[in-house]
TrEMBL record:
Organism classification: Bacteria, Pseudomonadati, Pseudomonadota, Alphaproteobacteria, Hyphomicrobiales
EC numbers: 6.1.1.-
PANTHER family named in the record: GLUTAMATE--TRNA LIGASE (PTHR43311), GLUTAMYL-Q TRNA(ASP) SYNTHETASE (PTHR43311:SF1)
Listed name of the protein: tRNA glutamyl-Q(34) synthetase GluQRS
GO molecular function terms attached to this record: ligase activity
Pfam families to which the protein is assigned, alphabetical: tRNA-synt_1c
Family affiliation: Belongs to the class-I aminoacyl-tRNA synthetase family.
Domain Glutamyl/glutaminyl-tRNA synthetase class Ib catalytic, first and last residues per copy: 2-276
Keywords per UniProt: Aminoacyl-tRNA synthetase, ATP-binding, Ligase, Metal-binding, Nucleotide-binding, Protein biosynthesis, Zinc
Length: 282
């Protein structure tokens, strides 16, 4: 069964970049003879708001993009992500991390090695904690996230790691993956029992996603996702990473940068047909 998904986060209004990704996903689903599911990635307890979810649904309906099956809201499935973390922890493949972001940056030093997102690689502070100290801090309710023990993970799943890559003609090729460059990646945050990386891996399996279409800025994340899928015994979808829509300054469109939203364009009288034509679907 061919199944794709569009998975926006409700921490701002959708913009042209989101519209492009949704339209590419719908186009692939149509050409592959499959269906397209909608997922709302609302694990952020502060920035995800109900009115933004409603706005996303309204924008997608306005664009006339159809979806199959029930909408999956990540905030309603935290127990599934917690179970995955506990599974990895029980196998010694993940450990609790009590470090704040500031502590990680400080411990990493002035010229740290960095992961593909540009963040300092975790220096392993909590990985080396004695078991007694770790248990004591957990029992005392110390705030903590969970990190993948990359060394142990690669010992269990040494690879070589590869993933199926789908080009614009729907032809699959094999692409090498290098999970090690993510280091001891955070798989559960201090404020929520998951992370983007863990939740999308679990969700893609639960929703039986066979093909993932997403932006080129997430290409490197696929390396980590392939490893998590191997560790959790999950099937790996085929991936297509499309080009990003850039603004006049050559920058990626982003809610945080105040990029013009689909709602703004709609208020200006722009039609869905014009949006599709502007993005190359007319």
């Amino acid at each position: 069964m061919i199944r794709l998904r569009f998975a926006p986060s409700p921490n701002g209004r959708l913009h042209l970049g989101h519209a492009y990704s949704a339209l590419v996903s719908a186009d692939f689903a149509d050409r592959l003879g499959g269906e397209l599911a909608l997922r709302i990635e609302d694990i952020d307890p502060v920035r995800s708001r109900p009115e933004l979810i409603s706005a996303i649904e309204a924008d997608l309906a306005w664009l006339e993009i159809g979806f199959s099956g029930p909408v999956r809201h990540q905030s309603r499935h935290l127990s599934a992500y917690r179970d995955a973390v506990e599974t990895l922890g029980a196998r010694g493949l993940a450990y609790p991390c009590f470090c704040s972001r500031a502590a990680v940056i400080s411990a990493a030093g002035p010229e740290p090695a960095r992961d593909p997102d540009g963040s300092p690689l975790y220096p392993g502070t909590c990985r080396s904690l004695a078991s007694a100290e770790r248990q004591s801090r957990l029992a005392a309710g110390g705030a903590h996230g969970w990190r993948l023990d990359m060394g142990r993970a690669l010992g269990v799943a040494p690879g070589p790691h590869r993933f199926r890559c789908l080009d614009t003609a729907c032809i699959e090729t094999s692409h090498p993956a290098d999970p090690a460059r993510w280091g001891d990646a955070l798989i559960a945050r201090r404020d929520v029992p998951t992370s983007y990386h863990l939740s999308v891996v679990v969700d893609d399996a639960v929703q039986a996603i066979s093909h993932v279409v997403r932006g080129a800025d997430l290409l490197a994340a696929t390396d980590l996702h392939i490893l998590l899928q191997a560790l959790l015994g999950l099937d790996s979808p085929a991936y297509h990473h499309h080009p990003l829509i850039l603004d006049a300054d050559g920058m990626k469109l982003a809610k945080s940068r105040g990029s013009e939203s689909l709602g703004d364009l709609r208020e200006q009288g722009i039609t869905p047909t014009e949006i599709r034509r502007r993005l190359g679907f007319g």
